[in-house]
Structures are given as C-alpha cells and as structure tokens.
Amino acid sequence: MKNSLLVLAGLVLSFILGFYLNSTLPVPKETEYSSLSNKQSNLPMENIKLGAFSVSLSVKDLKVSKGFYENLGFSVFAGSMESNYLIMKNEDTLIGLFQGMFEGNILTFNPGWDQNAYNIDSFDDVRSIQQHLKEKGVKFETEANEQTSGPASLTLRDPDGNLILIDQHR
Questions:
Q1: What domains are there in the chain, each with its CATH number?
Q2: Ordered DSSP codes for the chain
Q3: 15: number of CA atoms within 13 Å, CB side?
Q4: Gap between the Cα atoms of 106 and 20, Å rounded
Q5: Which of 37, 82, 153, 154 has the fewest other C-beta atoms within 10 Å?
Q6: Largest CA distance in the chain
Q7: Rounded to an integer, what distance in angstroms lies between the CA atom of residue 15 and that of residue 52?
C-alpha cells in the first residue's frame, strides 16, 4: 500500500491537507466498530473538539465544479485554478474542490481553526484526539507522531469506508 501526503496551500498555510490513498484498501467490517461504545475513556466523546469541518471533493473538471457550486451560492474562499484546487464557502459551509490530487472524497476536520480558518484558543491537539480514539478501539489508516507537537494529521475510515482526515495546522 502506498500512501502519500500532499500538503495543500490555503488561506494561511493551507486549509486542507489532501491525502492520497490507494483505493483498494479494505473497508472496515462492522464488527470493528460495534463494540467501540462499550470501551471506557478519560475524555467523554462529546467533549472532543475537532475544529472546522469541510468536505474535500475529488473533481474531474475544476472549472465546471466551480460554476456548479457558485450556482448553489458558494464563492471562492481559498486556493486557485492554477493550483488545481479551490476552497468554496457558503456561510459556514466549506467544500474543497480538488482536481487530480487524490481519489475519492474526504471528510476533513481542522483542530485549532474555526470555519474562517482563524486560530481558536481552545482546541484538542490531534495527538490527544488520536489517543482518545485509540482507547475507544478505533483503527487508523495513518497516525500522527505522538512524540511531536504542532502540525500533524491522522486518517481513519468510518464503517462505510469514507475517509476522514483530522488535520491540525498549528
């Protein structure tokens, strides 16, 4: 399996870190998730602060997709046509359009950022989130290095095989 991380530029450094995964990875079985709620953790699940949320879409034609989402009321928030990605925004809703950067779509969370890509004071570090999820029995595609601080990311899949990226930029 070959995984490669692609850091994408955005408002400050970037808004979304695109992660390329081989599409042949197995989808987790339901049994891997069925007992997760029975495991104990020091941090209640409802207290996890995942930060800004966006959906990263792998698009065939960036120009066509841009026009479509503009018709839905979105406007360009970050990125550029030349860079093959745009972050589109409608109120607090963010959609990343990426052409040729990764396969499939990604649910993205950015601890430490609000929906305008501004730093927030109180947030859970990606490594703390990772440790909490490990205690719950969650399986990861990639993990953040727990010996570091600052920017890091992890990826996991939900029970239906959807890729989730938790990407901390600071």
A1: 52-168 (3.10.180.10)
A2: ---EEEE---SSS-S-EEEE--TTPPPPPTHHHHTGGGS--SS-GGG----EEEEEEEES-HHHHHHHHHHTT-EEEEEETTTTEEEEEETTEEEEEEESS-SS-EEEEETTB-TTS-B-SS---HHHHHHHHHHTT---SB---TT--SSEEEEEE-TT--EEEEEE--
A3: 28
A4: 10
A5: 82
A6: 48
A7: 10
What's the token pair of residue 153? 């990311």
- Walk along the chain (170 residues) in steps of 10 and give the mean pLDDT of each run: 32 30 36 38 66 96 98 97 97 96 95 93 95 95 96 95 95
- What number of CA atoms fall less than 13 Å from residue 17's CA on the CB side? 19
Residue 108: how many other CB atoms lie within 10 Å: 26
